[in-house]
Specification:
Length: 184
Amino acid sequence: MSDILNVELARMRDACQRSALDLLETGCIRNTAPGHRLADGWSTLIFAEHVKAHSGSTTSVDLDTAQAKAVLASECLAAQVQFIEGHSVEILGALREQGKTYDIVLLDSANDPELTFKEYQIAADMVRRPNLVVVDDVKYYSDSHGVKGDVLLPYLQSKGIEFRVRRRWGGSGWIDVILFESPT
């Protein structure tokens, strides 16, 4: 995922004509055991590194942020991410009510297609123009793993919202990632 995110972060810096981007993710580093870096929420580290190098902000929402906080502390990046613990739909709703907006939103919480769709519905109101929405663990091609797009993909297709599919190796198989600009 790091290759995909680094390319997209650079692309968005160009599109926004500024280096400081505001990033939001649902789901963060949950497991630090060997082998999990390829498949488990390590976007938090990529976003923290980006903020340290380019300014901006990262907000990370998850039910349990302890592992992510420990990893970032060990990398001297703890100050680069605002962690909010709680249910993603509730937290996103509260952030939206506060008027928070973001350049990039990554939806990568639970492997629940309905939850991912609810997160998208809220996050779509919180993105600036231009923007990028990224959803990890989507099964687009038949040889991939993931379920998060099972509701979102048909919705995007029904609305004519164009998206790109990138593939990444998750350690035990291919994982599809969808990327698209959310209408506001």
